[in-house]
Amino acid sequence: MTTNHPLSDEEINAFGAELDALRNRVRADLGEKDARYIRRVRSSVRLSEAAGRGLLFAGFFPPTWVGGTLLLSFSKIVENMELGHNVMHGQYDWMNDPEFHGNTYEWNNACPSDAWRHTHNYLHHTYTNVLGRDHDLGYGVVRLFPEQRWTRFYLGQPLWATIQALTFQHAIAVYDLQVPRVLKGKVPVSELLPKLKQVAGKVGQTSLRDYVVFPALAGPNFLGVLAGNGVANVVRNLWTFGIIFCGHFTGDAEVYPPSVLENESRGHWYLRQLGGSGNLSGGPWFHFMSGNLSHQIEHHLFPDIPAHRYAEMAVEVKAICEKYGVHYNVGPFHRQFGSVVKRIFRHALPNRPEDAQPAAGVAAPPAAAAARATAPRQASPAQKLDDTLRRLQQWLDSTQPADASAAA
User: Fold this and answer.
1) What are the start-end ranges of the H helices in 85-167?
2) Rounded Cα gap, residues 195 and 178, in angstroms
3) Mean pLDDT of all residues in 75-81
């Protein structure tokens, strides 16, 4: 594995210039083949949804119910990831086709597109893995890095993460409401109400379609369609949760203090995107079903380049990283997701002294977090509980694969 080492300003500038050149070369090559690709994706989404819903109308007859549910799951996944997500990034704005314009596309998801464009397109991609600035770090309910402040709420985060995975589209829809901050008086209610109205409208629209309209159209097969729609939504939620959490919260992922943004050059920005992202290895179908977010590194380096180009760009990005000794985080899904699960369990508990020691190439934790991690524990009624939880974590660590433990 290539390891990070400090780069000089000249090296950082040259590193950024090589990535800029790659981006400009691919962007200049965009054309009809890319337009045909996204139109075929759109057609596959429509056909698979129509076929899936048609089969589900046959009721609980196992072959048609299973086939219909799988086709509807496929349609929802591809629409959200390869079509909606990538179009809303503006990857096809150059086509000047209103159907594929990033500022107007409305996807088939409970999260309103305008809210997603603000929280994801702007906040997440601008402040990737910057503490306090990137709200996608755990989506407000999961603690994944020792630099994040610990509270007893996080003791239950294995359960919170499971609920979040099962209901991921709704979790994404509501987390930007910042309800806890509103309850604490840090965000005025006047800011909550317009967002709440928008989210309630989109949740109501998608729920009405899947759980009322289409089941009602099926008449006596109401329950079969209702169940198929529900399972398809859960399949889509679990798959997108897995892909997205593997994109930023694997064992090698880094977080940064807000001070990293001061005087950040283009080269530094590229390095931060690399440190905060991770790729998944796999075949063409795996990459397609992930919306090519399995190439999360390339997506964060070049968010406005059509994602189906990332596989070819990844070869050159990896070579550039090797040239400059920059770590390129990639691994199979089972290993990357295993390291995510380990983070969820490990950081459900308070920091241990070793959590304050940054790994090579990792940004130093904020002073306050380091102080919390290294400060001697005060005797308290919770000490016994802390000791029990620490022993539980030691047992969890001992059950992890050796390579995953080393990575973390």
Assistant:
1) 86-88, 113-116, 125-126, 157-166
2) 10
3) 97
Q: Which residue has the tokens 């996807």?
A: 107
pLDDT at residue number 379: 43
What's the DSSP call for residue 130?
Answer: B
Tell me the C-alpha distance between 215 and 213, whole Å: 6
| CA distance between the termini of the chain | 14
Torsion sign (Cα): 129, 245, 338, 318: negative
pLDDT in tens, 220-242: 899 999 999 999 999 999 999 99
| Cα 172 from Cα 112, distance rounded (Å) | 10
Contact 364, 312 (CB under 8 A): no
Indicate yes or no: pTM above 0.85: no
Query: pLDDT tens-digit profile of 94-151?
Result: 999 999 999 999 999 999 999 999 889 999 999 999 998 898 888 888 999 999 999 9
The pLDDT of residue 308 is: 98
Please compute Rg for the chain using Cα positions. 22
Please, what is the Cα angle at 231 between 225 and 236, to 5 degrees? 125
Structure token digits, residue 238: 């679990």
3-state helix, strand, coil in the chain (%, to 5): 70, 0, 30
Sign of CA dihedral 57, 60, 64, 69: positive
